[in-house]
Amino acid sequence: MAPPANGGGGEVQEQAAQPQQQQRGIGQMLTGVIRIAVFWYFASKFFSPKKPMSDPSVPNLQISNLFNKGEPLDMWFYLSEQQNFSDFGNEGALIWHETNIPYAVWGPESTRSLSLKYHLSEAVKNNGSLYAHVFFARSGYSPDPNDPEYQPLAAFGRTYSIVAYLPKSKADKKKSLLRNSEDSKEDVTIPEFPQAVQEAQDDLKEDGPPEWISYWKPNVTINLVDDFTRYTANAIPPIVAPYINIESTTGNYYPTVFFNEFWLLRDKLIAINDTVTEVPLHLEVSPISMTKWQLFLQMDQSFQVHRSYGSMLDGESDELKRVFLEGNPYLLGVTMIVSVMHSLFDFLAFKNDIQFWNKNKSMEGLSAKSVVVNFFCQFIVFLYLLDNDTSWMILASSGVGCCIEFWKIGKAMHIEIDRSGRIPMLRFRDRESYAGNKTKEYDDLAMKYLSYVLFFLAVCFAIYSLMYDRHKSWYSWILSSLTSCVYMFGFVMMCPQLFINYKLKSVAHLPWRQMTYKFLNTIIDDLFAFVIKMPMLHRLSVFRDDLIFLIYIYQRWVYPVDKKRVNEFGFAAEDVDQAASSSDTPALKEDEKKTN
Predict the structure, then answer these.
(1) For residue 423, what is the DSSP state?
(2) Distance between CA 139 and CA 192 in Å, rounded?
(3) What are phi and psi of 94, to 5 degrees?
């Protein structure tokens, strides 16, 4: 199917609550494509049906295409409300007729198109069906079985539903909380009984089974597959078998007719109702290669598998297709490579973060309060994703992140269970390596002033969101406000560590491997900021993490190496030197004395 000439569709509103998600949107989708390809490869290798053992007494019959390459074909395109079509003499049903289309020949003469306006009948407006019946025949022959010139081996066809039935999108439950409360104070009149009943029925409909409505497909692309493969009758590939049309007398197959709707996005469909009387219809017939055809089939099948497992929501496949439709191919290639690197650096940063906290023996020079705040930020994001309809894979990933952040609290502080009351409570106590030096004092001082700034920013944004944004409930407003603060002001949480480094004049205690991988990921996010269309303020906001990391690098350059300071694994350079000196043999020590 040829991609649409224009991008079309409504403009995607950029929400302030998710700037980080917008920056990584294309990278995550392209990474998903790679995962889908790998998944499909291994699934086809290990779970595809095995080829049956051939019986020596039964010959392996080879079937081939009944038509030759370049053979001229005539085409008839009918529209009918009946699924089985036989009214070939109805001129009103014949929408399009083409002659001398060369079969499986790549050239301008093999591609034909037609655009028209179609008037809907009353039956179609009331959730009726409409089918496209496409017939091909060798030039000079008729597709009508009642015609004297009809030859069964010279004509073939296929039926396609041009009306799709999809569940109606649920009404947006978001509302202006402040405006509704003001309206309830000003207007205390009770609605009339029929209006109240109607509102109650609407609420029941939203909670009940989905309502199905009919949609018009404005683009119908007919592809003749360039397939002249000689298949073994009992070993046709599973992905091709449903589309093979075998002739009963000879055992050979007709040319495959494929209605290509891979690039037909859902937002291009037109909802059919009583007010719609005329709809556009663009028709196109063209050849398609065997490789491209199988790629479309495999991609659609992979999308269906991911939707059934819950790893892909409805509409995400359309967003992925839109990236390939509207994106620059060279830019997409670079983005795909960079997204793979982003996933690799994410994995390495996660691995080194676990290693650091697992082997860390001292909290000297590290901000324990930042670890606690990071857990609460991760938990807020998890609740926000749970409140919004998010796929279970993203929820599971966020939930695992919450558990890891809580585990890091146990490494940074002592966690005790207080059973003195009726309800057991968790109590957190600072470690001796953290409270016994200046680290705790500097951490408390930095967090004190930063909490004032964060509290002021959070309250201002919450008031702005309450006045100008729409929310499902007060709970959703609180979650969205907190999540927005985490996304927009979360980088401020790295500032206490900068203050501690400044006061201690050392950075030897930091996990530099993990921070290096995170810094590389930040550079990749900067690249995505130029790839994705976004407002200038959002584009500038992605460089805030760069500023923090540059300050870290500056501190590493300014402050000299302190051998007394413990490193990321809880060891100091002097300890290593002492261990090395103690492991020397007595003979070496005597030699040293002699030389002295």
Answers:
(1) S
(2) 69
(3) -80, 115
Given a contact cutoff of 8 angstroms between Cβ atoms, the answer to whether 154 and 124 are in contact is no
DSSP 431-447: -HHHHTSHHHHHHHHHH
Give the Cβ contact number of residue 299 at 10 Å: 18
Question: Residue 17, SS3?
Answer: coil
* Tokens of residue 231, six digits: 């298949």
Looking up tokens 């870290």, which residue turns up?
Answer: 552
Which is nearest to 88 in space by CA: 41, 133, 26?
133
Distance CA 306, CA 514 (A): 32
CB 263 within 8 A of CB 2: yes
CA triplet 49, 50, 52: central angle to 5 degrees?
120
Provide the CA 435 distance to its chain's centre, in angstroms. 44
Residue closest to 79 by CA, chosen among 112, 128, 113: 128
* Tokens (6 digits) for 461: 């944004």
Count of other CB atoms within 10 angstroms of residue 503: 16
**112-119 vs 219-226, strand pairing mode:** unpaired
In tens digits, the chain (596 residues) has pLDDT values of 444 444 343 333 334 334 444 444 445 555 555 555 555 555 555 444 444 444 444 456 888 999 999 999 999 999 999 999 988 988 889 999 999 999 999 888 999 999 999 999 888 888 889 999 999 999 989 999 988 888 989 999 999 999 998 887 665 567 777 765 444 444 434 344 344 334 444 444 455 567 788 899 999 999 999 999 898 878 888 888 889 999 888 889 999 999 998 888 888 899 998 888 899 999 999 999 999 998 888 888 888 777 776 666 667 677 778 777 776 777 777 777 777 777 787 778 778 878 888 887 777 777 777 788 888 888 888 888 887 766 676 677 778 888 888 888 888 888 888 788 788 887 878 777 777 677 777 777 877 887 787 788 888 888 888 888 887 788 888 888 887 777 666 666 667 777 777 877 877 777 777 777 777 767 766 666 665 554 454 455 566 667 778 887 888 888 766 555 554 445 454 554 555 455 444 443 444 444 44
The residue type found at 534 is: M
Distance of CA 3 to the CA centre of its chain: 21
| Cβ atoms of residues 277 and 120 within 8 Å | yes
Antiparallel, parallel or unpaired: β 425-430 and 413-418: antiparallel
Residue 368, phi then psi, degrees to nearest 5: -75, -35
Tell me the two tokens of residue 119: 């008037």
Read off the pTM: 0.59
- Among residues 197, 80, 91, the alpha carbon closest in space to that of 128 is found at 80
CB atoms within 10 A of CB 557: 9
- Helix/strand/coil for 11: coil
| Count of C-beta atoms within a 10 Å radius of residue 331 | 12
Q: How many residues does the chain have?
A: 596
Q: How far is the C-alpha of 217 from the C-alpha of 526, rounded, in Å?
A: 39
Residues contacting residue 462 through CB under 8 Å, at least 6 positions apart: 477, 478, 481
The answer for residues whose C-beta is within 8 angstroms of residue 177's C-beta and 6 or more apart is 466, 471, 473, 474, 477
